[in-house]
């Protein structure tokens, strides 16, 4: 799970990052020292969870939540106990009081894992997506999924690629993978999911696992991690 730490105190961020290091499934991808930085960082990186301080200069932790367009799991970490009720009204996973102890953090991580597992199960139970909304040339376009050739993560952004070009999406590849029909869309690289209806051929490469060439003529790298499943689906 991708994690962001938000706290205006550098030592508090460093200590929490150190306490989180024994958990191999948690990857601290960024830190923010104030509310404004937190909002831009969370909306850009779309983490699974955020450890969020409450009292910070300018915008506090609750105001951060009010201004997010992407909502991750939230664990509040604060030196004040008077915000606990408000925190759980905001559907927080947990409420940690500083200084955070390792045993108490372990309990919070267990709750986070349980919440994330339930969320993943819910996402898998939803019917497959039939359409998406993407932004291109300052306009919003409704995209039937069968017209999408592939999905691409380019840095912090995710795009749906059609014959008309790239359309920017407000989602992650992980969420898309859980919502798309698994017999139609398959991840072939950490940064790409392809529509099998648009696959023309596979090009083997002794240096890696090759590439996938689409009907449009475009080639996308096929990583070793995903090659076997793709070949199995294609009957190769």
Helices, strands, pairings?
Elements (H helix, E strand, L loop, with lengths): L1 E5 L3 H11 L6 E6 L2 H11 L3 E4 L8 H6 L6 E6 L5 H6 L4 E4 L4 H24 L5 E6 L2 E6 L5 E5 L2 E6 L2 E5 L3 H7 L5 E5 L2 E4 L3 E5 L7 E4 L4 E3 L2 H10 L3
Parallel strand pairs: 1-2, 1-3, 3-4, 4-5
Antiparallel strand pairs: 6-7, 8-9, 8-12, 9-10, 11-12, 13-14, 14-15
Question: How is this structure best described in words?
Answer:
- With about 240 residues, the protein is of the alpha/beta class.
- The protein has 2 domains: about 1-125, Response regulator (Rossmann fold); about 130-235, OB fold (Dihydrolipoamide Acetyltransferase, E2P) (Beta Barrel).
- It has 7 helices and 15 strands.
- It has helices at about 10-20, 35-45, 60-65, 85-90, 100-125, 175-180, 225-235; strands at about 1-5, 25-30, 50, 75-80, 95, 130-135, 140-145, 150-155, 155-160, 165-170, 185-190, 190-195, 200-205, 210-215, 220.
- A 5-stranded parallel β-sheet has the order 2-1-3-4-5, with helices on both faces. Strands 10-9-8-12-11 form a 5-stranded antiparallel β-sheet.
């Amino acid at each position: 799970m991708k994690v962001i730490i938000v706290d205006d105190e550098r030592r508090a961020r460093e200590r929490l990052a150190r306490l989180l290091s024994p958990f191999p499934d948690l990857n601290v991808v960024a830190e923010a020292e104030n509310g404004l930085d937190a909002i831009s960082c969370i909306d850009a990186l779309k983490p699974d969870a955020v450890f969020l301080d409450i009292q910070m200069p300018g915008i506090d932790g609750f105001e951060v939540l009010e201004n997010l367009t992407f909502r991750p799991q939230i664990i509040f970490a604060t030196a004040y106990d008077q915000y606990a009720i408000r925190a759980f009204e905001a559907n927080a996973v947990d409420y940690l009081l500083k200084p955070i102890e390792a045993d108490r953090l372990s309990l919070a991580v267990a709750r986070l894992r349980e919440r994330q597992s339930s969320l993943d199960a819910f996402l898998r139970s939803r019917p497959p997506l039939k359409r998406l909304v993407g932004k291109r040339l300052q306009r919003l376009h409704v995209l039937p999924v069968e017209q999408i050739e592939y999905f691409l993560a380019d840095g912090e952004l995710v795009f749906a690629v059609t014959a008309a070009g790239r359309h920017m999406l407000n989602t992650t590849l992980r969420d898309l993978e859980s919502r798309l029909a698994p017999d139609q869309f398959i991840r072939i690289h950490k940064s790409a999911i392809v529509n099998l209806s648009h696959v023309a051929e596979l090009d083997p490469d002794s240096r890696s696992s090759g590439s996938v060439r689409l009907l449009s003529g475009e080639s996308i790298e096929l990583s070793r991690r995903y090659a076997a499943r793709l070949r199995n689906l294609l009957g190769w």
